[in-house]
From TrEMBL:
Keywords: Cell membrane, Membrane, NAD, Quinone, Translocase, Transmembrane, Transmembrane helix, Transport. Belongs to the complex I subunit 2 family. NDH-1 shuttles electrons from NADH, via FMN and iron-sulfur (Fe-S) centers, to quinones in the respiratory chain. The immediate electron acceptor for the enzyme in this species is believed to be a menaquinone. Couples the redox reaction to proton translocation (for every two electrons transferred, four hydrogen ions are translocated across the cytoplasmic membrane), and thus conserves the redox energy in a proton gradient. One of its GO terms (cellular component) is endomembrane system. NDH-1 is composed of 14 different subunits. Subunits NuoA, H, J, K, L, M, N constitute the membrane sector of the complex. GO terms for biological process: ATP synthesis coupled electron transport. The chain crosses the membrane at residues 6-30, 39-60, 112-133, 145-161, 167-185, 197-218, 263-285, 297-321, 327-347, 356-376, 388-409, 430-454, 466-487, 508-535. It catalyses: a quinone + NADH + 5 H(+)(in) = a quinol + NAD(+) + 4 H(+)(out). Its EC number is 7.1.1.-. It comes from the Bacteria. This is NADH-quinone oxidoreductase subunit N. GO terms for molecular function: NADH dehydrogenase (quinone) (non-electrogenic) activity; NADH dehydrogenase (ubiquinone) activity; quinone binding. It is found in: Cell membrane; Endomembrane system; Membrane.
Length: 536
């Protein structure tokens, strides 16, 4: 069997990997002079832009493209003459309607994967711009920073296109492992070391839990491909596999796919991803890690890492474990309600800007999870998935604006207190206006229509799914969130105390990062159909 690889399908992660290697080579051989770090930043920025361009071209091309495929099992061929050989070519790049029935692929480039790739790369563009300002002081190793950042982006792009459990776990670790080092890059900062250690321990535990669940799923079904697992757990036999006796053994006395071991595996996988997205009860690390990490890394955790975690969670639950929705949907509903409540209540008590955004991010995870709870209740499960993805895309743009302005202010005042934003409209009108718009969007109030549309989409999905109690919890939490968002916004327009200083000169890369994120948020507010049509 010859298994071909279409490099145009995996072009984006290849570009990111090659640029990451190029950055390390340049860092090793270029003389370390003032301005050399800027060159590495531009190379990294160019790689991200190139990946974003290829993603846009793939989206325009459309279709369903895949590679790294395993063909269906074939009957044993009759004996052939010794001189005769047979080569089986696998259709790798065919559209969905041309793919052989039973073919299982590890890498699928569909609309879901393209949306998450675009989200990760756009957010990566903003994070790279913020990193240029973070690295300008010369206190951090530039080459290692950009290399790790590109590895994280490559993992995020790969994860959304992964369609087997091994590739999912490896991609998720490729997202997570570089973040430990990025968080601890300030070697002599005690808070950064503490944050990196907490993040490392949490990630190790979550990976162990997830691997336990993944191993159970493999033992039950005999396959790592999500499509084969779904077929086996729904009572069928995958085209590539024979009967799976282990599934019948473990599920003795229960309907196919609904045995106790399957339920345990489902809960373990869900718990592992809950760590990654900071969902209750695995959320306690968020505040300290966000505060101790450099601001660009906190932004990366809040958007790129979270998006990758949700991509994996959605793929596993709605593809491999769709037949087990009766098991995981009630758990997701309860976790979503607790997550949005805990995040909003904890955000009320914070006095530091990054910690407010950290607990706000936890609350937003609850909103993103909520539509998945009605996956099995609505006529079309993809509507629930679309609502979660739409909210995640809206949230990413709004949150990046806030982190960009926080970095601008933190360069002038390292205390990171909310009181530092008092009177910001009089010192930096553009930054204050951008932050105010971002906070209003996150609160879901006009004129921040992006946030309003996001909440309406999620609320409608929950109501259509018949979970009225979850809709009420979401409405109450939206009101709670209004308090700290509006209180922070009010500080921007409150006159500052006498003797207030203007701070350091403005940073052009950070200003550009805020501008990019703000432009995307404005587009989403004016033309939300751009997102809603994409996730439909």
């Amino acid at each position: 069997m010859i298994q071909s690889i279409d490099y145009t399908v995996i072009a984006v992660p290849l570009i990111l990997a090659l640029v990451a290697g190029l950055v390390l080579v340049l860092d090793a051989f270029l003389p370390h002079r003032p301005g050399s770090g800027r060159l590495l930043g531009l190379v990294t920025l160019g790689g991200v832009v190139a990946g974003l361009g290829v993603t846009a071209a793939q989206a325009v091309r459309g279709g369903w493209w895949q590679t790294f495929c395993v063909p269906p099992a074939l009957p044993t061929p009759p004996p052939m003459p010794a001189r005769m050989t047979v080569t089986l070519n696998v259709f790798i790049n065919a559209p969905e309607e041309l793919v052989h029935a039973g073919t299982s692929c590890s890498f699928v480039l569909d609309r879901f994967a393209l949306i998450f790739a675009g989200l990760a790369l756009t957010a990566g563009l903003v994070v790279v711009l913020m990193s240029m300002a973070e690295l300008a002081g010369g206190r951090l190793p530039v080459g290692e920073w950009y290399f790790l950042l590109l590895c994280t982006l490559a993992g995020a792009v790969l994860l959304a296109a992964s369609r087997d459990l091994i590739m999912l776990v490896v991609s998720l670790e490729l997202v997570s492992l570089p973040v430990f080092a990025l968080t601890a890059m300030r070697r002599y900062d005690g808070r950064a070391s503490e944050a990196a250690l907490k993040l490392f321990l949490v990630s190790v535990v979550s990976t162990a839990i997830m691997l336990f669940g993944v191993s159970l799923l493999y033992g039950l079904t005999g396959s790592v491909h999500l499509s084969d697992i779904a077929t086996a757990l729904s009572g069928g036999t995958p085209a590539r596999l024979g009967p799976v006796p282990t599934a019948a053994f473990f599920n003795t006395g229960a309907p196919t796919g609904l045995g106790p071991v399957t339920a345990v595996a489902t809960v373990l996988v869900l718990a592992g991803f809950a760590f990654k997205v900071a969902a209750v009860p695995f959320h306690s690390w968020a505040g300290d890690v966000y505060e101790g990490a450099p601001v660009p890394v906190a932004a990366l955790l809040s958007v790129i890492s979270k998006a990758a975690g949700f991509a994996g969670l959605i793929l596993v639950l709605t593809t491999a474990l769709a037949a087990q929705a009766a098991v995981w949907a009630p758990v997701v509903a309860v976790v979503a309600a607790l997550t949005m409540t805990a995040g909003n209540v904890l955000a009320l008590r914070q006095r530091r800007a990054v910690r407010v955004l950290a607990w706000s991010s936890v609350a937003q995870s609850g909103y993103i999870l909520a539509p998945l709870a009605v996956f099995a209740r609505v006529a079309r499960g993809d509507v629930a998935v679309g609502a979660s993805v739409a909210y995640l895309v809206f949230y990413a743009a709004m949150n990046l604006v806030a982190f960009g302005v926080v970095m601008l202010v933190s360069r002038a005042r390292e205390r990171d207190l909310l009181d530092d934003y008092r009177g910001l409209i009089f010192r930096r009108p553009a930054a204050a206006a951008a932050l105010a718009f971002s906070l209003i969007c996150l609160a879901g109030l006009p004129p921040g229509l992006a946030g309003l549309f996001a909440k309406v989409v999620v609320f409608r999905a929950i109501v259509d799914g018949g979970l009225g109690w979850l809709a009420v919890v979401m409405a109450v939490n939206t009101v709670i969130g209004l308090y700290y968002y509006i209180a922070w916004t009010a500080k921007l327009f409150t006159p500052a105390a006498a003797g207030e200083v203007a701070g350091r000169p403005r940073s052009l890369p950070v200003a550009a990062a805020v501008g990019v994120a703000l432009a995307v948020t404005l587009v989403f507010s004016v033309v939300p159909q751009v997102v809603l049509a994409a996730v439909a």
